[in-house]
Design a protein that fits this description.
The chain is mostly helical. It has a single domain, classed as Glycosyltransferase (Alpha/alpha barrel), CATH 1.50.10. The strands form five sheets. Strands 1-2 form a two-stranded antiparallel ribbon. The protein has a two-stranded antiparallel ribbon with strand order 3-4. The protein has a two-stranded antiparallel sheet with strand order 5-8. Helix 7 runs parallel beside helix 12. The longest helix is centred in the middle third of the chain and has 20 residues. The protein is globular.
């Protein structure tokens, strides 16, 4: 059975229903000017159009053709934008996702829409076989996870309209789900005892094809390309997507995890990495959970203590003072993976981070060129293998730049934050709501009408 939280979310009106369209086109706050009201209106209208077109009854797909289901961290970023148009709909976005939570606490990276044909996306429900796993939800899902941006999204959504959230019982229902989600990550996914969670598949990092994963992936024997049929190449340019060899490794890891019953241990996982982006979102999320707990009349201290432990572990384990950068750590070898990716800047989202100033300096360096590159490149601009058009191997993404912008504001770097915000909006105005962009030329790549690009544009437009 679909559980109560998911069933409640699915009672939302369909995208073509009058209520949702009214929310999208009439429910926004007054938008501050960026470069004149005409530009703002065009961006605002365009973003609403994308989110309306990609809404599917109770959740938003990332892109209609390439990604026709609900993705986990996409929904978190989408909710951050939707909250400005319809707080109730933003709440439903998160409720729908967390309604597919597994009994062990994991939040799956894909919730499959049963109305979408089975061969529309690979790997689909028949590959993951979640229905055969005790404790999996009634709705088909994948068995892996994505970065835990959900507590940040839920608290932001609540703050936008507390009255609506209280009337819907949003926090009392969502908070326990988020607590279980974080507990899964800090227990089952602490594979080394370091206090940090590990990702066990590149897809779990959100930065699927990053060069940061090349070294640990090199130990994984790929499944032959003849053993599976990729669907992404039906909707994307091959030069912008992972290679067949990389995809074969992704399939091998997912298959091995599935065949082990989705058990978590270093013996099961051929790939296991302590990722700075995921752990930073987990620490920032604990601060958000502390705020939720206080709002609900509960003790926030356990969450604040967890945030402090995660922050200390991040800095002591993954931070290199000489580089001014966080690096992932291979859980099998305990060695840092010294590649400069945007994930190593992501800990700026953590409150009270003791090395925030150092991260800002690294972002301003030639590797990332914060003053010029926009969005922030996903990978080192000075690296010989930087590729500005290939998936996570160089192009910039609005969501990771939004996280860094959020961190700049959090740590008092308001001038840099304002400049980044202005340039991000200019990029979207020129390129449209693309999945990712060349960080130096602004050329768009990947899917068009990408939901989190539209949603975070709405949030940037409304930033004070």
């Amino acid at each position: 059975m679909i559980d109560n939280l998911d069933r409640d979310a699915r009672r939302a009106p369909a995208v073509r229903g009058a209520g949702v369209i009214d929310d999208l086109h009439r429910g926004a706050r007054q938008v501050p000017a960026v470069r004149g009201a005409g530009v703002v209106d065009d961006l605002d209208r365009g973003a609403r159009r994308v989110l309306a077109a990609n809404w599917r009854q109770c959740a938003t797909v990332p892109a209609a053709a390439l990604y026709p289901h609900q993705w986990s961290w996409d929904s978190a970023f989408i909710a951050i934008g939707l909250r400005h148009l319809s707080p109730a709909r933003a709440q439903r976005e998160l409720e729908s996702l967390l309604g597919a939570q597994w009994r062990d606490g994991r939040v799956p990276h894909i919730v499959f829409d049963p109305h979408v044909r089975a061969d529309a996306y690979f790997p689909g429900p028949a590959f993951w076989r979640s229905g055969a796993v005790p404790g999996a939800p009634g709705v088909p899902t994948s068995g892996i996870v994505q970065p835990p941006a959900h507590a940040l999204a839920a608290w932001s959504t609540y703050l936008t309209d507390p009255a609506t959230a209280r009337a819907r019982g949003f926090l009392p229902r969502i908070y326990p789900r988020l607590v279980r989600w974080h507990r899964y990550l800090t227990t089952r996914r602490d594979l080394t005892g370091s206090g940090l969670m590990s990702v066990v598949h590149p897809w779990e990092s959100g930065m699927d094809n990053s060069p940061a994963w090349d070294s640990p992936l090199s130990r994984v024997i790929p499944v032959p390309a003849t053993a599976f049929t990729r669907r992404d190449l039906n909707h994307g340019v091959a030069a912008e997507r992972p290679t067949d060899e990389d995809y074969g490794r992704y399939v091998r890891l997912a298959r091995d995890y599935r065949d082990a019953g989705y058990a978590d241990s270093l013996q099961v996982h051929g790939f296991a990495v302590e990722d700075p982006l995921c752990n930073a979102l987990l620490a920032a999320g604990e601060h958000a959970l502390a705020s939720m707990a206080a709002e609900l009349g509960r003790d926030p201290q356990p969450h604040l203590a967890a945030a402090a432990r995660l922050t200390a572990a991040l800095v002591s384990t993954l931070y290199d003072p000489a580089a001014g950068m966080f690096f992932p750590r291979d859980a099998h070898t305990s060695h840092l993976i010294r590649t400069y990716s945007v994930g190593g800047l992501a800990p700026l989202v953590v409150p009270d981070l003791p090395v925030a100033a150092e991260l800002v300096r690294t972002a301003l360096s030639d590797r990332f060129r914060l003053h010029e590159a926009c969005p922030l490149p996903s990978y080192d601009l000075t690296a010989a293998d930087h590729d500005p058009g290939r998936y996570w191997r160089g192009p910039g993404w609005i969501n990771t730049s939004w996280l860094f912008w959020h961190g700049l504001r959090l740590h008092g770097e308001t001038a840099l934050a304002d400049d980044l915000r202005r340039r991000l909006l200019d990029r979207v105005r020129t390129a449209g709501f693309r999945e990712y962009l060349d960080p130096l030329t602004g050329a768009g790549h990947g899917a068009s009408d990408f939901s989190w690009t539209a949603a975070l544009t709405l949030d940037l437009l409304r930033a004070a």
